[in-house]
Amino acid sequence: MPSRLPSPAGRFIDRDKQIKFKFEGRSLVGYQGDTIASALLASGHTILSRSFKYHRPRGVISLSSLDANTLMQVGDSPNRFADRIQIQEGLNVSGQNYWGSLSNDRLSFIGKFSKFLPAGFYYKAFYSPRWAWPIWANFIRKVAGLGVLNPNSKHSYYDKEYLFYDVVVVGAGVAGLSAALEAALSGADVLLLDDEQRVGGSLNWGRSEPDENADITKRDELLNQIQQNNNIHLLSSSSVIGWYTDNWLAVVRENRLIKLRAKSIVVATGCWEQPIVFRNNDLPGVMLGSAAQKLINLWGVRPGERAVIATSDDRGYGVALDVMKAGVEVAAVVDLRPEFNECKLSLEVRRKQIPILLGRTPWEAIPNRQGSRVSKLRVAKIVAQGKCAPEIDSFACDLVIMSAGWFPAAPIVRQAGGKIVYDELSGHTKITDLPENVIAAGGIAGHTSLEAAAADGSYAGNVAAKAAGIDNKRVQPPQIQITKESQMHPWPIFDHPKGKEFVDFDEDLQIHDLETALEEGYTHIEHLKRFTTNGMGPSQGRHSSLSAMRLASRYTGLSLDGTGMTTARPPNAQVTLGHLAGRIFEPVRYTAMHHRHLEAGAKMMPAGMWLRPEYYGSDNRRNQMIQEESSNVRNNVGLIDVSTLGGLDIKGPDAAEFLNRMYTFAYLKQPVGKARYVLMTDIAGVIVDDGVACRLSENHFYVTATTGGVESVYRQMLWFNAQWRLKVDITNITASYAGVNIAGPKSRVVLERLCDDVDLTPDGFPYMGVREGHVAGIPARMLRVGFVGELGYELHVPAHLGEALWDVIIEEGKEEKIRPFGVEAQRLLRLEKGHIIISQDTDGLTHPIEADMAWAIARKKPFYVGLKSVSMLEKKILTRKLVGLEIIETEGSIPKECHLVIDGSEITGRITSIGYSSSLEKYVALAYVSPNQSNPGTIVEIRVEEGEIIQARVVELPFYDPDGLRQEI
Amino acid sequence: MADVLKPSSLIKRSFLYRIHEKAGGVFIEENGFAVPSNYGQSVREEITLAHQMGIADLSHVSRTGFKGWHAASWLEKKNCKFGLESNFSYLQSTGERILRLSPNEFAIVGKIVNDSDFITELNSSLHPETDEGVFIVPRSDTNCWLKVMGVNAPSMLAKVCAVDLRPQIFPDGAIAQTNIARLNCIVTRHDVGLATTYDILTDCASADYFWQALLDAMDEFSGGPVGVTAVYQLAGVG
Q: Quick one: B52 and B147 in the same domain?
């Protein structure tokens, strides 16, 4: 039955703006400001979900986005709190965890077998007989899980934000508002956070006075002061999901994860209302008092027609006044306390002649015929802890409101090291053991009346400002007034012979589930939690932990404090993987010529953070393009972008000595104007990088490194020189220089057209020579190196001139049929020359001897990084060696990189590089083989896919131009 | 009608010139580079944008760096004025700024308007064979230079940088050597006119990525690129 109250009820809704949305395929209408839950209740839907295990119908319990009762599928997003999400035009909402319909769930029969599904059932069942598991698995997969994940749903945009404040106040109820004001007045920069859309906490919906407007008036007054204070920044709809060391808070706000650092924190998160545990306390229509007040005061929804209000403190009388105001007939107020406590609210209820039953409790809720809602409440007299007299009063009602008191909402406090101490005599809690810069304030600290909470909030704000380093006057702390109005009931748990007294609504746990676990020995509160899953649902024990503690305490005889609480780990609120991933930053580096490559049709490939042209042309002509590009280098001239190669300037009087220590070769006598190969080993003698060292002057070397290795090489150099203290400076100038390699027999012809201040003749600029000059007026470091085995020049120019250099070379080389070539062609060309690529032809264990690079080790020098290890490795028996192979059989499968070289049943090595050489008209490869397979002429076997064996012959390296005549012309 | 300047007609090219072209940049020549004077809006509109949330590419302006155990004394001999405090920027009487990055490392950035030969002369006055313990760092090509401006700049940067860059914490002249959007950056607070401004030096090879990352972060503040003419006017010249 629709139950929207007439205006002005409903502070959050705008009745002028109707919003249409869909629920379970049906069109519904709500108002702007409605949550999904409030709109559904307003339109007569009382069943919002089905319980996790028994598929019992569930309605509103807390309306605080804390429990599984309001979890729904919203669009593509499962498990969203319907009491948090506001309706929007066209929103598509459906229930979860049912088979059939929400009102008629075929799986609800499981509840009839609850006796056979005790706590720990999952741990004990399904093991035998073994043949039954596939049947169980099929059934479990069908019924397990909540909601539907759409893997094709569009990715949402999430990001992060870093904030810093002197004082952060978490919770904007009366205590939080007061704390923020006081801290700001002290001069602190304050951030006030609240997880609700509208700040004010219980001031928005509660009633602490007979005057229904007293609380909201107080809220408006405080908020007005907050808004006028420039020192306070207010963030609503912001949930603190965790406290971490040094007051680092993780906060979720909409699609943003805020990483927040505070000098001090005031935690004013209030308390969670606790349910009464009695038979059928989970029926739709049974809810907490705060939920009923929110429905009435925030969204103008009448929660029922006839109510019984069960309470253990004076606030329940405020609830009674609110429901009466909403036109609900109050059949009775059932006060669990044995004596009437006179206060303004209780006296007002009495004045309205509402029956008040003292020392009684709800004993059993009776469902209506359809089982969809409570229709009657049976009330019994409490005669002892958890025991009732047999005489029962029955009340016809469709609304049962329950409240067993309030428990501190303290995850943040507990993560910060605080403890909740429970005084069993007074029924009161307090917080202890907090660090100096984390202050609990208001209800969480035991100040339950508005006046006390406000005073405590102000005090906390003052202390927090002081803790943040602000020199202010200390105010005196308010004293906690122990009154009956703020007591928690010591034992609101009433066993029923027929069970169904739910302790944990999320997990469908009843009293006997916990008792069974305790009897089985799970008496430690952490064990009890894990064995029963109590507190492991969305509510994280907010409504069930206290009852579990009480039951454990009764069993063990320990006090509640002695029983302890389970660990309060983050996250404290719902957080998506999107929040944690956030805006993903993936830096990418472009060379100066990057866009020229794209314009030339390059297929780009990642190389570390860089993108490099793999080849130029369409995907379906990949191999052809690679062959054409390499052939053009061999026959004409090619141009490749080598800007990604690492570049390091090593300068200073000890530059040569430094290189002599860092690399295996000798550099002390390297002439100026010459380049020399560099090979770097680590302290274990493993090859880690290579390149060339160009001596530009006596004290200046320009050293290249591999694209992927330069950062590590740079770090190693800094690290070692921090110990050696040589007079040398190391600068990573990789990005400063754009580089090209113009290679091929016609490269000199092209370059001669562009360069007039360097003698390019073979004698004037010989192989492995280094020059500084200008190319088309662009200052360049010029290296005659031969990685691809042809006459070639590497030109390194300031990065901002790189594109212009590329343009002019392409233009001037047209006559010689110049064309760009990519990384794949370069790999093939160097393979023909037998040049290794570090990390492709080496691995994390390769040392120079087995890579056949002993020639790159200077034997006479006393030290280089890795010398000791390499010397030791040389003395050991070699286990593998890098050799050149030519594939003998080319009719069948072609080996690929990492295919295994075998010798009978033994694996002796692997292919590291392979490619078809147009120049040689055969497949050539580099591979590790065993030393006894390494002699030229040896036939080795390679196992390829499907176990096929391919034969290959070991040959001398290099495959192409063994005398190096082409590169040295 | 005057010829339209195409960035690719000059040999000096900013790493971002294509982005400026796509954004509607109207180019003028500065220091040998084609620089976006504006992005099709009036100068007044771009100044308004800069006061709220703007970004400008100043990569054409001179800059250099020196480091080494004698770098500080060498710079002092060249009449450079700076204090002992590292991570602070020191304004020179000629308008350049010396960014002291550590006791032995300095970055020097030129004037955004009327860039002089100060930096070129400083570079050429270093003689490696005789000036021991002083080494040049080619900042012009290692780093691009972006200027982030406006009252929303601190909030925008708070989305991409874990350092507190709010004006009350990070005063004019302060330097943070930190990470923005996962890139190493040197951030200097250097206000221009009334706009809260941060100069960011970062990897020039990642300029394209970085520009897009900042534009994405400033989207919620309706930020956008600002041409140099607006920047000059904010600086009180041009």
A: yes
